[in-house]
Amino acid sequence: MRRKNISKLIISICIALFFIVCVISPIVSMLCRITPDGFMSVVGSPQFLPAVINSVSTALIATVISLLLAISSAWCIRRTDIKLKALFSTIFVVPMLIPSISHAFGLVALFGSNGLITNLLSLDGNIYGFWGIVVGSVLYSFPVAFLMFSSILEYEDGMTYKAAEVLGIPALSRFTGITLPYLKKTIISAFFAVFTMIVTDYGVPLMIGGKTTTLSVLMYNKAVGMIDYDSGSVIGAFLLVPAVAAFIVDLLNPENSQSSFVSEKVEPKKSRMQKILSYVFCTLICVCVFAPIASFCIMVFETKYPVDPVPTLYHIQKTLSRGADKYLLNSMIYSAVTALLGTLLAFICSYITSRLNDKFSKGLHLISITSMAIPGIVLGLSYVIFFHGSPIYGTILIVILVNSIHFFASPYLMMYNTLGKVNPNLEAVGQSLGIHRLFIIKDVVIPKVRGALVEMFTYFFVNSMMTISAVSFLAPPAPKPVALMINQFEAQLLMESAAFVSIIIFVVNVLIKGVSNLIKRKLAASR
Amino acid sequence: MTEKLVIENVSKSYRETEILKSVSFDAKDGEFLSILGASGCGKTTLLRILIGLLEPDTGKITKDGTDITHAAPDKRGMGIVFQNYALFENMTVLQNVKYALKFHGIPKADAEKNALDMIAAVGLSDHIKKYPKNLSGGQQQRVAIARTLALNPDIVLLDEPMSALDVATRLSMRKELKGLQAQFGTTMIYVTHDQEEAFALSDRIMIMNQGEICQIDTPENIMRNPADEYVRTFVIDNLQAKVDSLSKFINGRRGG
After folding, report:
1. What is the DSSP string of A225-236?
2. What is the DSSP string of B93-133?
3. What is the mean pLDDT of each run of 10 residues along chain A (527 residues)?
């Protein structure tokens, strides 16, 4: 027993040290750069207050719109009798496969001064600024909110509604008395999650914000553009506030859905009018989701829209000659390594926290989900400050490390929940039968959670392929991740090249998702 | 019967709560001893201490005269069957029973033969290629018992193994369990909250309440001389109530 305790202690210390070095120390060192004078100079600067107002107001409006659209579309999928639900649901989450900057770029391509729809309808092309940020943020955040509401509505107990109907409770009262209270927790969680996601993102406002500067863009300009890390740290601390608030809300507001007892799913309504409206609504959402991607394709494959619509491969060749293929390959390698490292790390941590019920595992659980509270842009700056001068700084290793930490919380929680459902006595049986824990993990636990492992790998891979937030601070000049080329090409007015880069990221992510789904299906069938 | 397992003054606390309060008892060789008590009385904690999954705060456990208080679970010559069986779901019945044997230096061919013999003993020879999900609750329990018995333990601990079974399966499993005990001569320590099950199976019953032993004796003696008010209400009154309701029903049918 003593030997077992020592090995457990060594593993625990190693993991604790890893998180201290990779999460806590960088953030602390960033916060330590803040001096009273530096704080006052940032807060007192003429750009600061407008940036705060712009950030909060765009994020608030976009969050409300995103949530309304998400609830409505989830309602259509889970509560009406329409066909093609799986197809609609898949299309709704497609925006999660392209970087946030691409959503804004898609809007520019459609509604910008020389955009496709601007030209088609002879509009004024004034999408830049406040409303551009709002629309881009809605496009980018909608899938996250949709998934949350779709899942909660799927697991609502239908018997409650049947009982209410039998008791003669009218439809409106059923909605206000049953549905809304049931959705309350998810609405709160989704509100904070989406608001934080939008307020800390700089891809959309950087691309489409025009003269409307948000806090995240101000931070990017200070830290990346002017190498002013002190001012960047002050703004980073402000951006931590909503993220930490969302984190605390999530901790205090655990999900009420899947764990509850569902005796019968809610039966979809068979109303013709509802069906027609749902088809129209879902189709409109699909059009909005696909419009940016379609616009990229038109831009890439036409010689010069709208002047010369002759099909061409010229833009692809030109982009490839600028090194897009090498950047893509590099990105795929980083993403694969990040996915391997992240999956391994998240599995070890979730195993410890879900299967070894001791004080350390509770502490580790809290640290593991802390990365949710750190926006990518803040994590990037904190890594620049903390790791500057270390051997990994300026290499691809730091990009892999920062991505593994940035995207750690979701896959970790996924595996934590999956392992929590695996029979809690397997290791105890193994001990009594003389089977070492490692063999129980290898031969019994891992075969049981293979599907979740594939999902974790995919999550790390897809997100690493498209992230720009932390890596824009840390990526070495060459080889750069391919997502960073979008901004670079757009700044050089090489719009077709920027569109092509967005497409290849999208295609790679769709392929990875497709392969991952095939593997998961095969694994589920083989059980 | 000689003493197989001796437990002396075993205590266990979690934070401020005392789960076991200086518990002492013994189990005889080849005996069927039931530990009976309501939920939260400390019986599962006691079982986990006996198998070595938990360390007691104080006290001593001796098996065949050897102190095993701090021995690793697999070095105690004991096996355990959990309430939810904890079968290896990705393995067939045969693989489930055979898997542990390879960690004990048993040659592959012998391991296969041992496992097949044990599966035959629990009556599952026709199901060796099935996976746990394709078995009934009773069959799953038999696999768990075969897996435990394959390592030839002197003592088998059973943690409420029948609580998830329907009444008919429970009744048939009781017989099978007693049959297996007689066949292998194993000492069985059986944790349950079901008074009827304890009385039907046991040579002796140990009744626990709030981490303490209220009484340990044969079922007959407990019925005749309950040690305290708790034993009287929790065990005897409950059993009597069951008997009364059944006899009313049976008499009613006869009368009708």
Report:
1. IS--HHHHHHHH
2. HHHHHHHGGGGGT--HHHHHHHHHHHHHHTT-GGGTT--GG
3. 70 89 94 94 94 96 97 93 92 92 89 83 84 94 94 86 86 88 90 92 91 93 87 94 86 59 73 92 94 88 81 92 91 95 95 85 84 88 94 92 94 93 93 94 95 96 92 82 88 88 95 95 84
Q: Cβ–Cβ of B53/A436 closer than 8 Å? A: no
Residue B50's pLDDT band (cuts 50, 70, 90):
very high
Q: Which chain B residues have a beta carbon less than 8 Å from that of A431?
A: 52-53, 72-74
Token readout for A82 is 């329409």
Please answer whether residues A195 and A63 qualify as being in contact, where contact means their C-beta atoms are separated by less than 8 angstroms.
Answer: yes
Q: Which among B80, B103, B133 has CB closest to A434?
A: B103
Q: How far apart are CA A28 and CA A5, in angstroms?
A: 31
Which residue from A437, A426, A432 is spatially nearest to B149, judged by alpha carbons? A432
Q: How many CB pairs under 8 A join A and B?
A: 68
CB atoms A433 and B78 under 8 Å:
no
ipTM over 0.90 threshold: no
B88 → closest Cβ in A436, A444, A527: A444
Residue A155 near residue A258 (C-beta atoms within 8 A): yes
Q: Where in chain A is the domain with CATH 1.10.3720.10?
A: 1-32+313-527, 47-311
CATH top-level class of A47-311: mainly alpha
Domain A1-32+313-527 class in CATH = mainly alpha
Bridge partner residues of B34 (DSSP): B190, B205
Ramachandran region, residue B136 (left: φ > 0; alpha: ψ -120 to 50; beta: rest): beta
CB A467 within 8 A of CB A483: yes
Residue pLDDT, tens place only, B191-250: 999 998 999 999 999 999 999 999 999 999 999 999 999 999 988 888 888 888 888 877
